[in-house]
Design a protein that fits this description.
The complex is a heterodimer of chains A (about 475) and B (about 280). Chain A is mostly helical and about 475 residues long. In chain A, about 70% of the residues lie in helices and about 0% in strands. In chain A, the strands form two sheets. Chain A has a two-stranded antiparallel ribbon with strand order 1-2. Chain A has a two-stranded antiparallel sheet with strand order 3-4. The mean pLDDT of chain B is about 90. Classes of the chains: A mainly alpha (about 475), B alpha/beta (about 280). Bound molecules: adenosine-5'-diphosphate and magnesium ion. Magnesium ion binds next to helix 1 of chain B.
């Protein structure tokens, strides 16, 4: 049995390695491939063909994958008579075209192989229990990647998934504070703004700065940072502001934090639009041309890692102290928990991840403008936290995707005036979506106060139990 | 001479015009079980709150193992409002937060039970082991402290075992019956590794058998954990049974102190307290 499992794992790993090897090799090989497809230099005689080929090469050099694929399709389709397509070329072309999906599949197989091997060599139940979630997470990521390559990166589904992942991170960071530490903060949008600006300011390529900062002589800052470094800096910047606010406010017993953070968010929004800071913030103008993400996997990876870190923290001895403070401050303090220190910790960490969320949102939107980070954004996130359940991370994640899908997609039709024959459907007009949304929220808050998850977490055990119960119920009925 | 664990000197706590504790002076020595009794509203819980840092007293000093942990004199508008009977205030000002005092080795339970309500019995105790950790945020979040974490968990289990709640360890704290919740509060206090344990009406709501068992239990934990115990209690049988000395307060003032036998025979106490109780 052991040997059987191991050989399966070995085969999986082999398949994975092959897939990964060929897709990585195919990634940069397009120019050589085009050479090989046209051994008689037909393109030199045919101006049309030459043009089509150049278009492929141009978009390839630009790094625009989607355009490259479209142009490649046109080129190979339009001039199939003059092109030589032997099996090796066809094979490599296939790997170029489907590279991301295939490498995602390869990754998934690799994880599966590792999990299988781990299962064989571990007698401890702990590893066995960890293996399934790892496989599921890998499957999720592979699924997202494959989906993206199937439906296209700019489809509504991918838009919702990307924004949902970003909102999930921000909602989880807010839940850490509001749901797990019992502190009521309303500054999430402000910390996201700081994160978004820091990220944008430090990543706009130096050569693009004259255009972006056109009213401020190219701006003050004349260097750029790698994306991930700027992202961490975005988090640190937001955390620093949180620390400053917490310094006086978190020492007070009562809940001044909500007022202080709300005020802070409003002030910071005005400050970043202030003309005097223009050389850094570009005043009330857009910041743009900073790196954005090429694939939905990026926000998924950053949000996933961040949420995992928050989850680990919540289940550590520090997280236990947070929950103790939430349940009963007086008792927590009597157990030796320093209220100020732990509240400050939760607040700073929450804001750090809100800053990272802000940076992701900037990348998602491709532009940043302070005016967009209104308190309405904070309320949206608060709603997600309430709908998902205060004190449930998985609830926040699920609610984020539901919320974003509903507001960006499913309920869009409410904003469009609709005619059924000559009958104009009443109420459906711009803005009605928000009305409908508010009603939903009110219903949730009034009748379903626990939200989707209450303070429980989604787990595989819970899921199987639930499915089992449903199955049984079905059979009985 | 026995080591002096706790000493209060002229402690007064005034809320607005109400003098809840008035010029209270007392001391507890290492290993003693001392009771604080008095009618409802006499200021017993307030005295506990002054010792544990929940309130900063209006005036007076508290020493723990010789160290001044609280030292206060009327501040701000209290200067004019002060209505205590003792007016020779200490000159230095020292305040400590409750967590700092717990860290020094003073743990307590609450009259109105204050368990962490969303947590299980085990988690309640585990939270209180927090003081023994040396891990920082990062080592804790990244699970680099698993050895320490294991020790904390073992310590918490030992405390649950000491109060006989092993069978209930995974139950929600607030779903336990009253008597067990009180025991759980004691387990939680013990988990901070105290030297001085303050119990605020630990037998409240217990029936006579439970109260009897509690008396035995308090003496056991004193032996086992080498504790000094300061206790507020209304059940006179329990107080007379286990305490070595008693302080009696009424309207915030000390009206008597002495051995249980002396207190029982003290006419002031009988009128102020025992008489009312037995009417
Ligand atoms: N935080 C407070 N604010 C105002 N008055 C208080 C406060 N705490 C206690 N008191 C008053 O102090 C007096 C003593 O209360 P307490 O110490 O709880 O009595 P005991 O524990 O002896 O029954 C009561 O009159 C009570 O109303
Ligand atoms: Mg009391």
């Amino acid at each position: 049995m052991k040997a059987f499992k191991l050989s399966i794992a070995f085969l999986l790993a082999l398949a994975a390695a092959t897939l990964l090897f060929f897709s990585f090799q195919a990634k940069d090989s397009l120019p050589q491939l085009l050479e090989r497809m046209d051994p008689h230099q037909a393109a030199l005689q045919d101006a049309q063909m030459q043009k089509a080929r150049d278009r492929v090469l141009d978009s390839f050099a630009e790094g625009n994958r989607e355009r490259t694929l479209r142009n490649l399709d046109r080129y190979t389709g339009g001039f199939s008579d003059s092109l030589v397509m032997d099996s090796r070329t066809g094979f490599e072309l296939f790997f170029y075209e489907n590279g991301p999906s295939l490498s995602a599949l390869g990754m998934f197989l690799l994880v599966a192989a590792t999990a299988l091997t781990g299962l064989v060599f571990s007698r401890q139940g702990k590893w066995r229990r960890a293996a399934l979630p790892v496989v599921l997470i890998a499957a999720l990521y592979a699924g997202v990647y494959i989906l993206e390559n199937m439906v296209g990166g700019s489809s509504m589904l991918m838009t919702v998934l990307k924004k949902g992942a970003i909102y999930a991170l921000v909602a989880v960071s807010m839940n850490l504070l509001n749901g797990f530490t019992g502190l009521f903060s309303l500054g999430q949008a402000g910390f996201m703004l700081i994160g978004a600006y820091i990220f944008a300011i430090f990543t706009i390529p130096v050569e693009s700065r004259p255009q972006v900062y056109q009213y401020y002589a190219g701006g003050l800052i004349q260097f750029e940072m790698p994306t991930l470094v700027a992202m961490v800096l975005a988090g640190l910047g937001a955390a620093f502001f949180a620390w400053l606010i917490g310094l006086p406010v978190l020492r007070l017993k009562s809940d001044y934090l909500a007022i202080a953070t709300l005020g802070f968010a409003e002030i910071i929004r005005a400050v970043f639009q202030y003309d005097g800071l223009g050389p850094i913030t570009n005043g009330s103008n857009l910041l743009r041309r900073f790196p954005t993400f090429q694939t939905a996997l990026f926000p998924f990876a950053v949000a996933g890692v961040s949420i995992a870190l928050i989850a680990l923290l919540i289940h550590s001895t520090y997280g236990r102290s947070f929950k103790a403070i939430r349940d009963d401050e007086v008792a927590a303090e009597a157990m030796g928990i320093n209220l100020y220190r732990h509240k400050q910790m939760a607040f700073v960490i929450s804001s750090f991840f809100a800053g990272i969320g802000g940076a992701l949102l900037a990348m998602y939107q491709t532009t940043v403008q302070a005016a967009a980070f209104t308190s309405a954004m904070t309320y949206e996130i608060l709603l997600i936290v309430v709908i998902g359940g205060m004190g449930s991370l998985s609830g926040s994640v699920m609610a984020s995707f539901l919320f974003v899908a509903a507001s960006e997609w499913w309920l869009r039709f409410l904003d469009n005036e609709t005619m059924m024959g000559s009958f104009r459907v009443p109420l459906l007009r711009s803005g009605f979506r928000m009305v409908a949304f508010s009603v939903v929220i009110m219903v949730v808050v009034l009748f379903y106060r626990q939200g989707i998850m209450g303070d429980r977490e989604l787990s595989i055990a819970r899921l199987t139990r639930w499915l089992g119960r449903r199955g049984k119920g079905g059979r009985d009925g | 001479m026995a080591e002096r664990v706790l000493e209060l000197q002229h402690v007064t706590m005034q809320f607005g015009g109400v003098v809840a504790v008035d010029n209270l002076s007392m001391h507890i020595d290492q290993g003693e079980i001392v009771a604080l009794i008095g009618p409802n509203g006499a200021g017993k819980t307030t005295a506990f709150n002054c010792i544990t840092g929940v309130y900063v007293p209006t005036a007076g000093q508290v020493r723990y193992q010789g160290q001044v942990i609280v030292s206060a004199q009327p501040q701000g508008k209290m200067k004019a409002l002060y209505a205590g009977s003792y007016k020779d205030f200490p000159s230095q000002r020292v305040t400590s937060t409750p967590d700092a005092i717990t860290k020094l080795g003073v743990a307590r339970t609450f009259q109105n039970i204050r368990l962490f309500k969303t947590q299980t019995a085990f988690e309640n105790v585990l939270i209180a082991t927090h003081l023994h950790r040396s891990s920082n945020l990062f080592t804790a979040a990244l699970r680099l402290n698993h050895r320490e974490e294991k020790q904390l968990r073992e310590h918490a289990l030992k405390m649950l075992e000491a109060v006989g709640l092993m069978d209930e360890k995974d139950e929600l704290a607030t779903s336990l019956p009253y008597g067990k919740q009180r025991r759980l509060e004691i387990a939680r206090a013990l988990a901070t590794n105290p030297k001085l344990l303050l119990l605020d009406e630990p037998a409240a709501g217990m029936n006579p058998q439970e109260t009897d068992a509690l008396g035995q239990f308090i003496q056991e934990v004193r032996e086992r954990f080498d504790l000094t115990i300061f206790l507020i209690e209304h059940h006179m049988d329990l107080v007379m049974d286990i305490s070595e000395r008693i302080y009696v307060i009424d309207f915030g003032r000390q009206i008597a102190t002495g051995l249980p036998q002396e207190i029982q025979d003290n006419p002031d106490v009988v009128t102020a307290y025992l008489g009312v109780e037995e009417e």
